């Protein structure tokens, strides 16, 4: 009886985890390979979901504070000796001012902070140099193309031989243990499909431009060296994270997609989105897309040191169910709201700078959707050390007496919002030359 019950439960888990998300992801044929991937992904979500999220949030806060002390003490020295290199936050400080970054690219893998801290990408793997910007064969991608690089099974550190514009014919389905490292080249993924990280772990995408992304019809696409599958239409997200964990997106320049710039859905977790520059698009970041998919409670995402620039309308981010730590970001004249949510998500907003537009109707940073006022008041949405300009205001909620439990006794606050312009000064893809500080 017990056995039967367990089996039944397993079956249930199975069909819930695998089938529903797969179908909604437009995998036209849900075969054994996708079923196994879905199942494994759900297990890793479980593994990387942190039952004490604030410990990770405070780890990041400590680092920001440490750096500020150092920088205050050494500012004169740093400026005098480096000239061009000015790391303004603890993630950048981990690598940007080292001249040998190009010989030691994989050192970047240790630099993530926040929920994506464990993302190692292609660390320990070979360097794969993309030499060919074409994307013509979906089933048998040519050696030297980005698509050929990302379908490999082993860890790979993917770099670019030269500046290139890559127009993806269909969504780029990325296998786990990959770093896509645009440093040293001016790489644009544009005018075609975007990235799809589906049921994978350990992906880092760093230092590229992604823009003008549109939906594609789908069809037969190779998603790994040993698997080709039929896909339905893709949504036209710049980066879509689906049932995946340990993901770090850093120094991306993102604008204009058909759907979202970054979507993380279906119990994706352990994600950091940092140092990115967002502009000119309606929907920036969606964390959780379904009102009924309660597994998204396990979603934990850090949004840090980003610049949300003009021309954005909403979702910076918008969260369902999960937890978002939004720290030291610069918000500039959103057109509807900045941070939104549904289904009782937890929002910890610290040390951001919110500059509202002149429109009297869009002064509020926050937006609670599909809830009664009573329900909205119970969600924990907290603002600490944020700076509000031009009439911007944050509508806090949740029991203010309910302490978010910190692990460390002397947790230091993130940098105040007044420092954010400097902290986010280098958001977006950087121009880096080998042999020079970046
Ligand atoms: C699936 O395809 C349909 C049409 O074929 C499209 O409307 C829908 O947006 C697609 N969904 C996803 C998640 O790509
Ligand atoms: C703040 O949010 C609560 C809950 O949704 C709502 O009832 C209240 O009217 C809001 N206050 C302001 C000033 O917008």
Written account of the structure:
The chain is α/β, with parallel strands linked by helices and 438 residues long. It has one domain (40-62, 98-121, 163-423): Single-stranded right-handed beta-helix, Pectin lyase-like (Pectate Lyase C-like). The protein contains 7 helices and 30 strands. The protein has helices spanning 2-24, 32-48, 53-82, 90-93, 146-150, 373-378, 420-423; strands at residues 126-130, 156-160, 164-166, 172-173, 178-181, 187-190, 195-198, 201-206, 209-213, 219-224, 227-231, 239-242, 245-250, 253-257, 260-265, 269-274, 277-279, 281-287, 300-304, 307-308, 312-314, 318-320, 323-327, 330-332, 339-342, 346-350, 353-355, 366-368, 381-384, 387-389. The strands form 4 sheets. A 10-stranded parallel β-sheet has the order 1-2-5-8-13-16-19-23-26-29. The protein has a 9-stranded parallel β-sheet with strand order 3-6-9-14-17-20-24-27-30, with no helix packed on it. Strand 1 (126-130), helix 5 and strand 2 form a beta-alpha-beta unit. Helix 1 crosses helix 2 (32-48). The longest helix is centred in the N-terminal third of the chain and has 30 residues, at 53-82. Its cofactor is Ca(2+). GO terms for molecular function: metal ion binding; pectate lyase activity. It comes from Citrus clementina.
